[in-house]
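Write out the bound-state structure for N7-methyl-guanosine-5'-monophosphate.
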Amino acid sequence: MSDAAHQNDVLEPPSSKKIKIDQQNENGVSVKQLELKDFIAEKVIKNNTNTKTVCIEGKFRDKTGVALVVLEKNAFKEEELNDTGYFCPETVQETYFQNDIYGNYVCFPKSAVNGVKTTIIYPATEKHIVKYSQQEVHIVVETPELYEKLTLPHIEKEQFNLQWVYNILEGKTEQDRIVHNNPCEQDGFVLLPDLKWDGVTKETLYLLAIVRRRGIKSLRDLNASHLPLLKRVRDEGKKKILEKYNLPESQLRIYFHYQPSFYHLHIHFTYLRHEAPGIYAEKAHLLSTVINNIEMMNNYYQKASLPFTIKQMDNIFKVYETNGCVQRIDSNIENTELIDK
Ligand code: G7M
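---
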């Protein structure tokens, strides 16, 4: 396939003009498409000026329950930097100042190149609000004993619902987004764009491989019996991404999160150039390193002490705090109220 053909694959604009969300919520209940014009913003719970992302808590008109809206300014697409994209007559330009050879302007490009990536979570639980809130973060080192005594009981007691994962695996949602599907129950997986990726902008490529086998919670559970599965994800994932997006394996970052947010094994594939959230040393474990560690020692991940980040508002923080593993600090992070409640 030519480069141009690959590009078309990647750059095809999303077909729907409205914001498209799953037709089922995480409880398997059908939900009508939610529209931003019905959103009543109440509080900014996160405003990250680096990633240009805000998360707003609020409500939808005529609906009960809390909603979260995450807005993210998109990365520039290089193929739009031309006379049909940014440099076309529809672009409105206003001058801030001009001084000698220097000029400073604000420009308002046409809406087709100016979309804002939007994620809606409705109904959002208290745990979602905690996850998306700006807050103090700590690192704890989880020994195998601490995993058994503190982390595992906590995961068993409270974790995010996995319905969205089962919906994908059972062919109920996001089927038009699937990039690769290996149906083998034992060692198969589905590869598709992550929620955080628009599926279009190559510069921010972010795919997720979700394994079909149930019951593997995280990295902690992996041993030599999972090697065929891990190698299949690695090899088939790389091959598909090369075919569809023309990105070679040397340009891919393939990794697990520890701790993950969702305790059903999945592997992240991101473009090496893209600084996706959660790629840092305290959270990401490269698939190649994981395979290598297990090949050297079958039960490496049952024996290892694994560091992980823990958010001060999260319930698991209280568990580790009570056991003397971490100390709370006074936070000066504040949320901005948008309306008087
Ligand atoms: O931190 P953890 O390894 O658990 O990451 C889970 C990943 O799943 C994140 O990168 C999320 O953006 C992604 N994700 C979460 N949800 C609810 C969805 C979803 O509904 N669809 C897709 N495609 N990805 C999701």
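---
The chain has two domains: 18-70+116-322, 75-113.
The chain is about 25% helix and 25% strand.
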